[in-house]
Specification:
This protein is mainly α and about 250 residues long. The protein contains 12 helices and no strands. The protein is globular and about 55 Å long. This is ABC-2 type transporter transmembrane domain-containing protein.
């Protein structure tokens, strides 16, 4: 655990020392809310619409933090000469993976907290303490497919390929999952297809956590669990493939 904490501290400081990287990870979801939710009176002045918009941006914040930290971050580490040396140490991969998870979860919280704090102040969104307590485990569960997906990208691609790959995954999935536009504005075929995406599942669970009267979607739980298992397999495969190619 001590080694994992030290790895997490190192990773956090590496990013924090580059202000633009830290700002993009943390501030980008808040900027989205300030540009597209707060000025829109039809959303900001409607308590339910503002709360739904906050939940959607929160899911996007989680996806953005996971894909960038675990995808682009891992690919960047693999390009350094320090990475092969760390892999030869007897501690094994567990402390490094645990440290990266701690670091990633820290950035997830840093991205989500400003949105959760500013939304009730600048809009009519409501987030009671009970909803906030429920939202945290939902957020952590919802981030798992993106976490493992980020690992799969980072361990299978170079830094030049990881960044566009992460963006190519992030923005189409965010749109089709209802994170930019509410799903009730989708055509029927897109609404049906989006239920199979982890972004839509994470959105549905987040909406359930922060709004009263919304039924818990069993389909969303199954979809998230399925994507988590699939991306976890891909992450393990990518790690072993990278290890086999670089350390034979």
């Amino acid at each position: 655990m001590t080694l994992a904490v030290q790895h997490a501290r190192l990773l956090f400081l590496e990013t924090a020392r580059v202000p633009i990287a830290l700002g993009f990870n943390v501030a980008f979801p808040t900027v989205l809310m300030m540009f597209f939710v707060v000025p829109n009176g039809a959303i900001a002045d409607d308590p339910r619409a503002a709360t739904l918009a906050t939940a959607q941006i929160t899911v996007f914040a989680v996806m953005n933090a996971c894909l960038l930290n675990f995808g682009v971050g891992v690919a960047e580490e693999r390009a350094r000469a320090w990475d092969p040396y760390l892999r030869t140490l007897p501690a094994g991969p567990v402390p490094r993976m645990a440290g990266r998870l701690m670091n990633g979860f820290a950035y997830v919280l840093l991205a989500v907290i400003p949105v959760a704090v500013l939304a009730p102040l600048l809009t009519e969104a409501t987030l009671p303490a009970t909803s906030a307590a429920l939202a945290l485990p939902v957020i952590l569960f919802g981030c798992l497919p993106f976490l493992f997906g980020g690992f799969a990208i980072g361990f299978s691609m170079s830094i030049k390929g990881a960044l566009p790959a992460a963006q190519a995954v992030m923005f189409p999935m965010a749109f089709a999952g209802g994170l930019f536009l509410p799903p009730d504005t989708f055509p029927a075929w897109l609404d049906t297809a989006s239920h199979a995406l982890p972004t839509r599942a994470a959105r549905e669970l987040s909406v359930w956590a922060v709004t009263d009267g919304t039924a818990l979607s069993q389909t969303a739980i199954v979809v998230l669990a399925g994507w988590t298992a699939l991306t976890a397999v891909l992450a393990v495969w990518a790690y072993r493939r990278d290890e086999g190619r670089r350390f034979r």
